[in-house]
Amino acid sequence: MSIVTRGFRGRRDSAPDLPPGQYLTRDFPVLSAGPTPRITTDAWQFTITTEAGAKHTWMWRDLQALPSEQPTVDIHCVTKWSKLHTSWQGVSLDVLFDAVDTGADYAVVHSYGGYTTNLPVEDMLDGKAWLVYGFEGEDLTPEHGGPVRLLVPHLYFWKSAKWVKGLDLSDHDEPGFWETLGYHNYGDPWREQRYTGD
């Protein structure tokens, strides 16, 4: 039995504004490796650890006290589905990084359950990424990464790590879970960077 949820197979539509190789879905497929972590908001916390080892931690109540945004974005999965005009609620990573003294170029994202992925820091700033806890006006469900997931919509959706719990900042790039198994290190859907060598 595979530990990876089977790919979604549903009605496929095409649209001119999709990245190459993608098809449009109106559903929200659930794809994950391993079991779904169940983290309560009382237990949830998020920590940014700088390259110098300084730790900055936010609990659920801290996150809720920060100014929230409601981005509406298109999302694109490496398994070739795209979902357009998705609405989220959360906190821009710019707000969290305001409290962090760093010159790091890279981050490894850590999730409850052990999942990791890597990102350049510049891809998480300037309004490009959020910690989200709401989807389409409802609390984000565990199946879709709740209570909080990372949202980095300009990259393939595996970079938007579910069940997020922290970032380790670094001066060097370190591939995460899928990247070490052959997924592209960066993952730009418009350049079809699905796998190593793309």
From TrEMBL:
InterPro entries: OxRdtase_Mopterin-bd_dom, OxRdtase_Mopterin-bd_sf
Domain of life, per lineage: Bacteria
Gene3D superfamilies (alphabetical): Oxidoreductase, molybdopterin-binding domain
Domain Oxidoreductase molybdopterin-binding: 34-178
Protein name: Oxidoreductase molybdopterin binding domain-containing protein
